[in-house]
Amino acid sequence: MTALPQTTAKKLGLVIDLDICVGCHACVINCKEWNTSNYGAPLSDQDAYGANPSGTFLNRIHTYEVKQPQKPAQTVHFPKSCLHCEDAPCVTVCPTGASYKRSEDGIVLVNESDCIGCGLCAWACPYGARELDAAEGVMKKCTLCVDRIYNENIPEIDREPACVRTCPANARHFGDFADPESDVSQMSAARGGMELMPEQGTKPVNRYLPPRPKADIHTDGDINILAPFLEPVADTPKGLLGWLDKALEAL
Amino acid sequence: MHPAASVIIFTSLSGLGFGLLFFLGLDRPVVSGWVAFTFFLIAYALAVGGLLASTFHLGNPQRAMKAFSQWRTSWLSREGVVSVATLLVMGLYAALLIFADIRIAPLGWLGSALCIATVYCTSMIYGQLKTVPRWNMSTTPALFILYSLAGGALLSAQLPFALFAIVILTAIQILSWARGDMSFSQAGHTIETATGLGALGKVRLLEAPHSGENYLTREMVHVIGRKHGQKLRVIATLCLGIIPVAMLLFFPVNHFSVVLIIILHVIGLFVSRWLFFAEAEHVVGLYYDKR
Predict the structure, then answer these.
(1) Does A235 reside within a domain?
(2) Which of B63, B193, B212 sits opposite A53 (nearest CB)?
(3) Is the pLDDT reported for residue A146 higher than 80?
(4) ipTM of the assembly?
(5) What is the per-residue pLDDT across B37-53, written as a single tens digit (0 to 9) for each?
(6) How far B85 CA sits from the closest chain A CA (Å)?
(7) How far is CA B30 from CA B25, B94, B105, in A?
(8) A25 in any annotated domain
(9) CA distance A203 to chain B (A)
(10) What pTM does this model have?
(11) For B151-194, how does the pLDDT look when each residue is reduced to its tens digit (9 = 90+)?
(12) What domains are defined for chain B?
């Protein structure tokens, strides 16, 4: 049923630290690898080796430049996947009941055998988290790796979403936001974890930690703090060069 | 939004079909026998043809029957349920009228009310979406219903009502374009709210996630074709409203002129419906620094 649960026992989601993400796209690749070879329809590519390649991804990294007047620009790598919203508009628009939000842990999923591929849920999502697979004609989205996090056939250390497990910089964290003592809740509280597009009223579960402010190195118009170390070492030439210098001056 | 032919044909034709059925249900014009059969045939061809066109954009149309199940929350599901109910009620009304020459007026009234409800459900598929501010306005259902009534009145030759409906429709259409142009900025969505990075400064996209297009950019970040928007609005206004009104007021009314008015009005309907999709901006475009 596409009615949203009143409350969920857990609120599983991700913390994404924008201060740490280096934009390596490892999470994109591991997400695609895990989700194309496990639960549900594979994530297809079209014209993968041709002139105009495209494909289905559940996680994409945008890179933004943030600029204040008279200050150096700052680059922010911005991973984006499903935010598993509490008030998920993608779920209620679904005409077949294929989209649903689990009452036990809050994960938003698609039952692919019920999906007719109308695409309305992707229209209803403000974040671009849902993509219709061009080969299968069903809606694909982040499952929070529901087939890893409860999977007792894999080592315990691997029971977290593929993107979190693979992040070499530790920019992604997985946990329960319903528990105020959890790592993700604490991290979000300490760093001012933010919701994306809050004016849409979707109440996303995932939180983004804003980049920490950069130290202000912009003094006296001299932006290169290493400049003093790059002064010429020998002000006046000595030895043969000194004699040559004097001789040429005298000419 | 990508102006897919299937959804433009679906919303336009089914709107016309249910508009015509609305008037047939009210016994306007008063018809029976073969004339009634022809009117109902046209109405059903438009309504059912439009509904079938909508299934062409589905990824898995063989499962379309499942779409009747979620009417409690989904406008798309409601549209399916109500449209089938409408076609069944009007089918019974039409069969009795054509083959037994029995007219059950309350059944026709019920069918007419269901016709409006169907068009309202269609409009709310788009009108409910907060992600597309240009659609998320009260004028969206008003426009869909007025297009349906105006077209239906023309097709059923209810010319005084058609004149009235077209005048109001044209006014609401122009109002909706004017309000729609401001809707995105009024909703307050910017690349800064989308990324949450506004506190740090002005945000722009440095690098897109992938070098090529993807489903999201093809479906929801459709920016081509908007440059002729203003010209197309003028063409649509002339075809759907101004010329038909002038012809209804100042030209002799005969079969030929009414057919001409219908053709012009339908051209205007298709142009405005194309603009409805092509000019609609989805908030996900902000992440791609495009609208």
Answers:
(1) no
(2) B212
(3) yes
(4) 0.94
(5) 999 999 999 999 999 98
(6) 17
(7) 10, 12, 12
(8) yes
(9) 14
(10) 0.91
(11) 999 999 999 999 999 999 999 999 999 999 999 999 999 999 99
(12) 5-288 (1.20.1630.10)
Report how many domains make up chain A. Answer: 1
| Total CB pairs under 8 A between chain A and B | 200
Distance from CA of residue A142 to its chain's centroid? 12
CB-CB under 8 Å, B204 with A123: no
Give a yes or no: residue A61 inside a domain. yes
The answer to whether the Cβ–Cβ distance between B66 and A116 falls below 8 Å is yes
Q: Residue A79's domain is classified under what CATH number? A: 3.30.70.20
Rounded to the nearest angstrom, the minimum Cα separation between B177 and chain A is 21
Question: What is the extent of the structural domain holding A144?
Answer: 12-209
Q: Give the pair of three-digit tokens for residue B230.
A: 């203003």
A146 close to B (CB below 8 A) = no
